[in-house]
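re: that chain from earlier
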Amino acid sequence: MVDKWLSIVVGLAVLGAAVWLFVGQQRGFQVDPADSDNERRLLKSQHRRRLQVAVLLGLVGLMIAVGDGGFIPWERHVVAFALYWLVVIGLTLWLVLLTLADLLIHRLMARSAAGSLARLEQKRAELLAAVERLKEHEQARNPRPN
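^ sequence. v structure.
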């Protein structure tokens, strides 16, 4: 009896975490109009993946609570029992793949942003050096009397 309640509690906790993730992703999603089309496309794709993870995580939580909570008489439906849990395992593996894809894309975007930042910093240094040369040239042309 405790096992059934534990399964229900764990399943509902996973479902609650999924709802929390879904709401947090919906609230935090913003696309900056200044972003390029490629960046907007990547952000929308990331948003879609994260919503899919939240929904599937909620479904897995619900399936755990229902499937192991004693609501279905599995003794009479052994084949359905096996198929049900294969679906739960398949959805869980799909969640892992989506999460790994999101992690990989996030790392690639961060690496790209770091490269862009390094290029901007190099350009800034070049411009500052050019300003210093112009100041020196101006001082050489128009020396100030002491």
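The chain has a mean pLDDT of 86.
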